[in-house]
Amino acid sequence: MNAPKSTPTAARCYALLPCAGTGSRAGTAQPKQYQPVAGVPMVQHTLTAFAQVARLAGVLVVVAPGDGVLTSDAAARRTVAPCGGATRAESVLNGLNHLLAHGAAPGDWVLVHDAARCLVTPAQIDALIDACLPDAVGGLLALPLPDTLKAEAGGRVAATVDRSDKWLAQTPQMFRIGALRDAYAAQAASGFAGFAGLTDEASAIEATGAQPLLVRGSAQNFKVTYPEDFALAEAILRSRNA
C-alpha cells in the first residue's frame, strides 16, 4: 500500500515592525514612534492598520531593551520583543531570528514595515501580499519618482538625472523569512559598516542577486521623518476619520 501523501503547509505571513529608533531627525523629546499624532502615539496608527489584515499570522514589534511603552496583545496577534539593536538593520535581523525561534518557518513570509509610516492602509498591505505570494522573490511597495531628479556637486546642480526608471522605495517589504535572514546575516558578516548601511530589506535581497518586485504604493504612505511631517500626517488621518 502506498503511503498517503502529505499536504504541504501553506506559507504563513508575519509582519515585523522595527520600533527601536530614537528619531533624532524628528526633533521630538521622545522616540518619534511614540509622539502623539491625531491623539495617539504614531505607532498605534501603524499597528491598527496591520491588526485589520486578517491573514497575518502575527505582528512582531521589535523595541529597544527596557522600552515598556508597548505591550503584547494576543487579541491583535501582536508580540512585543525587546531585542532592538543600535541600527534598523540590527533590529530587523534580531526580529527575524526571534520569529524563527518562536514558531515561524524559513519558508514563511515576513512584511517588514517602518513604524513611522503611520498612514499605511490595510488595502495597501493586502495589495502587497496579493502581488508577492505567487512571486519567487517577493517585493515592496514603491512609487515612481514624480519630480525632476538632480545630481549635486558642491551645492550646485551637476546634472539632471533621467527619472523614467526611478522609484521611491516604501514599506512594507515582503520576503521569505529565511531568505531575508540569510541576506542580512551575510551583510553583517561582511563588516559592520556595510551592515549599518542597509536602509531597507530590498537592498539586502538585491545583494544576493535577486530582483524584488515593485508594487505601486501611495504618496500618502510616507515616512514621518522631519518636524513638519507630523502636521501633514495628522491632517491626513483626521480627514480619513472625518
From TrEMBL:
Keywords: Isoprene biosynthesis, Nucleotidyltransferase, Transferase. It catalyses: 2-C-methyl-D-erythritol 4-phosphate + CTP + H(+) = 4-CDP-2-C-methyl-D-erythritol + diphosphate. Its EC number is 2.7.7.60. SUPFAM superfamilies: Nucleotide-diphospho-sugar transferases (SSF53448). It comes from the Bacteria. InterPro entries: IspD, IspD/TarI, IspD/TarI_cytidylyltransf_bact, ISPD_synthase_CS, Nucleotide-diphossugar_trans. The record marks R163, K223 as: Positions MEP for the nucleophilic attack. The record marks R25, K32 as: Transition state stabilizer. It is an enzyme of class 2 (transferase). GO terms for molecular function: 2-C-methyl-D-erythritol 4-phosphate cytidylyltransferase activity. Catalyzes the formation of 4-diphosphocytidyl-2-C-methyl-D-erythritol from CTP and 2-C-methyl-D-erythritol 4-phosphate (MEP). Belongs to the IspD/TarI cytidylyltransferase family. IspD subfamily. This is 2-C-methyl-D-erythritol 4-phosphate cytidylyltransferase. It comes from Ottowia flava. The lineage of its organism: Bacteria, Pseudomonadati, Pseudomonadota, Betaproteobacteria, Burkholderiales. The gene is ispD.
